[in-house]
Backbone:
C-alpha cells in the first residue's frame, strides 16, 4: 500500500467506528444519556464527553509528533523489541480495563445533542489537520502510548476508531443495567 492508501484506510476504519457510535447515540434520549449507573460506571453523557476530549488530545499529540519528525528529519522512531499491542488485540480489549488520565476525564458537560452532533466533524477535523502528512510514510514513526505501546502513526489513527468502539460497548452495557430509563 502507498502511504496515501494506508492513511486513507486507517481513517476510513476510524470514521466507520465513529459512525457506528453516532448511530447508537441517535437512539439515546437526553434522560438516558444523563442516567448514572449505580455501579459507578460512566453515564453515556460522560463517555461521550471523554471521547471528545480524547479526540482533541489525539489530534494535538499527532500534530506534535508529525511536526517533531518534520523538524528533526527523524521519521523512524521505532525501537527494536519495544512493547506494542496489535489493533486486533486492542479491539478485543486484551489491554483490560484502562483508567483515563485526569486530563481526559469528563468535566461535567451537559449538552448531549450538541456533543453528539460534533462527533463526526471532530473526526473530520483531525483528518484534515493530518492531511499535510498523508503522502509521507508514517509506518515507522512511533507515537508512544504508555498503555498500548509503540504504535506507529497509522496504528494510532486506527486506534482512535477502536477507542470509540470500546466506549460504545461500555455505553451499551449501561443501557442493560437495572434502572436504565425508557425513552
Residues:
Amino acid at each position: 500500500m502507498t502511504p496515501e492508501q494506508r492513511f486513507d484506510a486507517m481513517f476510513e476504519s476510524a470514521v466507520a467506528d465513529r459512525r457506528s457510535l453516532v448511530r447508537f447515540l441517535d437512539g439515546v434520549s437526553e434522560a438516558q444519556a444523563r442516567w448514572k449507573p449505580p455501579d459507578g460506571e460512566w453515564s453515556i453523557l460522560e463517555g461521550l464527553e471523554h471521547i471528545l476530549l480524547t479526540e482533541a488530545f489525539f489530534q494535538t499529540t499527532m500534530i506534535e509528533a508529525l511536526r517533531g519528525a518534520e523538524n528533526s528529519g527523524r521519521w523512524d522512531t521505532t525501537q527494536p523489541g519495544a512493547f506494542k499491542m496489535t489493533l486486533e488485540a486492542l479491539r478485543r480489549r486484551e489491554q483490560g480495563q484502562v483508567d483515563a488520565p485526569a486530563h481526559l476525564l469528563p468535566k461535567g458537560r451537559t449538552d448531549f445533542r450538541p456533543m453528539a452532533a460534533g462527533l463526526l466533524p471532530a473526526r473530520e477535523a483531525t483528518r484534515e489537520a493530518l492531511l499535510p502528512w498523508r503522502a509521507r510514510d508514517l509506518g515507522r514513526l512511533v507515537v508512544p502510548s504508555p498503555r498500548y505501546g509503540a504504535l506507529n502513526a497509522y496504528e494510532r489513527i486506527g486506534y482512535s476508531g477502536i477507542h470509540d468502539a470500546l466506549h460504545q460497548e461500555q455505553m451499551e452495557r449501561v443501557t442493560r443495567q437495572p434502572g436504565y430509563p425508557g425513552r
